[in-house]
What does this fold into?
Amino acid sequence: MEERNPEEMAEKPSVKIGLFTDSHFAEKSRWRDRFYRQSKRKLRTCIDRFNDLEVDFVVNLGDLIDAADSKQEELENLEMIVREFGRFRGPRHSVLGNHCLHSLRKREFLERVGGRDSGFYSFDFGGFHFVILDGCYRSDGVSYEEGNFDWTDSDIPLNQRKWLREDLGKDELPAIVFLHQRLDGSDRYSVAGAKEVRRILEESKRVRAVFQGHSHENDYRKIGGIHYVTLRAMVEGSGEENNSYGVLEIFGENAMQLKGFGKQVSRDLG
It folds into this structure.
């Protein structure tokens, strides 16, 4: 990645966005290196940082909660973690993740995290266009609802692709995309139609970057002139030293920087 001029780096960003993913909060014991209960404390630290830095809005990139023994327990876990998320003093956006829908319907989840009636939408802010995508569909086009899916089978269905193409064709503001499942590969962590969705993004000539989660790892690729940044999961590892989140600072149409905290890698996206 290109290094930017120090004077350019000193500029005040026009937009600051808080990002975190895969908190997987649940009141249950650890599994492997996932410390589910600790995500509530980790998110509190994360939100405190976002408030201190006065970010413009926050995007949760999915899997806010993990599976529980019953739907009622999942709703209780969701209420607890949303209470922490709600401490942010500004707009909040939540991408749908597969674990959020183990026992819940999309409507049940969305109405509790922000009151929206759709998992995909777009909005403008600070001279940029932001797109939230919903990859929680099976490859046959059926929406994830109450565990009717295998997490390795995900896609952006045709009607959403049509919406995306039309949405990106409305004006020329530079655009940034957020989703849970990945768009930069062809393995089980990527949506089945990743290549076709990337083609829509590239043909729009508007999209500068895509931010995603799901695979729990720090990762980066640049495909067709677009940055694909995968954030590390918050749930991985015990203690504050293993927290993971970032602040995306946008300096201009082609100048961005992701500042990582904890285990999140910082990236210059010039």
Summary: The chain has one domain: 14-268. Residues 14-268 form a domain with the Purple Acid Phosphatase; chain A, domain 2 fold (CATH 3.60.21.10). The chain has a mean pLDDT of 95.
